[in-house]
Amino acid sequence: MFVEHVAFLVEDVKGVTDWWCTNLGMKVVRYGGPPTHMTFLQDSAGKTMFEIYQKDDLETPDYASMHVSVLHFAYYSEDVAADREKLLAAGATAVGDVDVTAAGDQLVFVRDPWGVTIQILHRKEPMV
C-alpha cells in the first residue's frame, strides 16, 4: 500500500484551490462539484495529492489557532527565503524566520490566507 491522498476541510474550496495552484504549484486533477466541492490537488512532482472539501454540517477547524506542529503541509524548496517572500507577497502570513536545524536543513513556516500552515524546507540531505 501507499498513501494516495490526505484530505482536509476548508471553508472556501475555490479560494484555497486558486491560491494553492497559483502559489504552491498544485493542479486540479478532479473536481466533484456541489455540495462539497471535493477537489483533488496534485503537486508539481505528480507524487502527492490533497483532497479539500467543504461540508455545511461540519465545523471547519480554526487552522490559524493551531500550533504549527499540530498540522502543516511541507513543501520542498531550492531557495527557502525567496519562496517565503513570494508567499508573503501573495497574502501568506509569516510565522517566524528561517531556521537551520542541527542536521543542516532550512525550515520556515507561513500560513496561507485561511490560516493553514505551510512549511517551506530545504534538506541538506534529501529524504525523498
Question: Would you mind describing this structure in some detail?
Answer:
- The chain is of the alpha/beta class and 128 residues long.
- It folds into 2 domains: 6-53, 2,3-Dihydroxybiphenyl 1,2-Dioxygenase, domain 1, CATH 3.10.180.10; 69-122, 2,3-Dihydroxybiphenyl 1,2-Dioxygenase, domain 1.
- The chain has 2 helices and 8 strands; from the N terminus they run E-H-E-E-E-E-H-E-E-E.
- The chain has a 4-stranded mixed β-sheet, covered by helices on one side. A 4-stranded mixed β-sheet has the order 5-8-7-6, covered by helices on one side.
- Strand 3 (39-42) and strand 4 form a beta hairpin.
- The two termini are 17 Å apart.
- The mean pLDDT is 97.
Briefly summarize what is shown.
The chain has helices spanning 13-24, 80-89, and strands at 6-9, 27-31, 39-42, 49-53, 73-76, 93-100, 106-111, 117-122. It is α/β, with parallel strands linked by helices and 128 residues long. The radius of gyration is 15 Å and the shape is globular.
